[in-house]
Amino acid sequence: MPRVVVDVMPKPEILDPQGKAVLGALPRLGFSGVTDVRQGKRFELEFEGELTEQVLAEVRQMAETLLSNPVIEDFTISVETPVAAVEAVE
Amino acid sequence: MKIGVVTFPGSLDDVDAQRAVRLGGHEAVALWHGDHDLRGVDAVVLPGGFSYGDYLRCGAISRFSPVMTEVIEAAHRGMPVLGICNGFQILCESHLLPGALIRNDHRKFVCRDQRLRIENTATPWTSAYDQGAEITIVLKNGEGGFVADADTLDRLEGEGRVVARYLEVNPNGSMRDIAGITNERGNVVGLMPHPEHSVEELTGSGADGLGFFTSLAAAVLS
């Protein structure tokens, strides 16, 4: 089954208090060297059948209208090859 | 006047808003998120709370509820709409108001009596106040930080569309201390603090919020 992944991230200029909280917690756990953390959302959309250009255009629409708020967030869309298919190729 | 108050799953302040509407001298009409029906009301209040559990983003799912289709259409025709807190978030997600509301910069939920200045008294929700009036009403939010790009902020300020501004303390990191804004036409107002909780002396925070609910009659009659 094809899977489309939509990653949504707060725009660089938008304050990300959650990312800041994670950044603050890392040194307390003994992890050093991280200079910034941004927290976003990942959506995995499963489809039946083939991923046509039309389906991808629809995903774009979903991302613009519901999955992200374009005022404060950017998104990227990627198609994930199912693990089974990768094994079959090898 | 008949003023509708929408109840979404997760609304908290709908009953207080209905009460404030009645104290303001109007008939409160309960509206349901799942109905394509405004039941003949003259104005709509979107109350505070955590509609749809704040899932995805605050207000993001409510925006697509059946009743919001009607509210958005009515707002475009000029019907007065007031969104309080979660209602403000829904109005931004609906693109009836510009900008967005993000998590408080200090990351904590804030609950306090907040001092505000009313900077636009031309809206149907604020006409009962004197220009520049300083009031104190309840504020309670976790994601109340108003953000917009610089051009939008400049336009809001330039066109006098900042309805209310935080005084003394900026409680949530809102840009330019903005507590409430209106649309170009002036009929849609979004406000992060809660005037509906400050309508009676009995309950502690005073009655400074009542003006939001008495303004309508004056605005419509004038």
Task: Describe the 3D structure.
The complex is a heterodimer of chains A (90) and B (222). With 90 residues, chain A is of the alpha+beta class. Chain A has helices spanning 17-28, 53-67, 83-89; strands at residues 3-10, 41-46, 73-80. In chain A, strands 2-1-3 form a three-stranded antiparallel beta sheet, with helices on one face. The two termini of chain A are 18 Å apart. Chain B has one domain (2-221): Class I glutamine amidotransferase (GATase) domain (Rossmann fold). Chain B has helices at residues 14-23, 66-77, 86-93, 150-158, 211-221, and strands at 2-7, 27-32, 43-46, 81-84, 100-102, 110-118, 134-141, 145-147, 162-166, 178-182, 188-191. In chain B, the strands form two sheets. Chain B has a nine-stranded mixed beta sheet with strand order 2-1-3-4-11-10-9-6-7, with helices on both faces. Chains A and B meet through helix 1 of A and loops of B.
What gyration radius of chain B follows from the Cα positions, in whole Å? 15 Å
The portion of residues assigned to helices of chain B is: 10-25%
Give the C-alpha Rg of chain A.
Answer: 17 Å
The count of DSSP E runs of length 2 or more, i.e. the number of strands of chain A, is: 3
How many domains of chain B? 1
The proportion of strand residues of chain A reads: 15-25%
| CATH homologous superfamily caption of chain B | Class I glutamine amidotransferase (GATase) domain
pLDDT average of chain B, as an integer?
A: 96
The CATH first-level class of chain B comes to Alpha Beta
Work out the helicity level of chain A.
Answer: 25-40%
- CATH architectural grouping of chain B: 3-Layer(aba) Sandwich
How many helices of chain A? 3
Element order, helices and strands of chain B? Answer: EHEEHEHEEEEHEEEH
Write out the strand line-up for the largest beta sheet of chain A, numbering strands in chain order: 2-1-3
Q: Please work out how many helical segments of chain B DSSP would assign.
A: 5
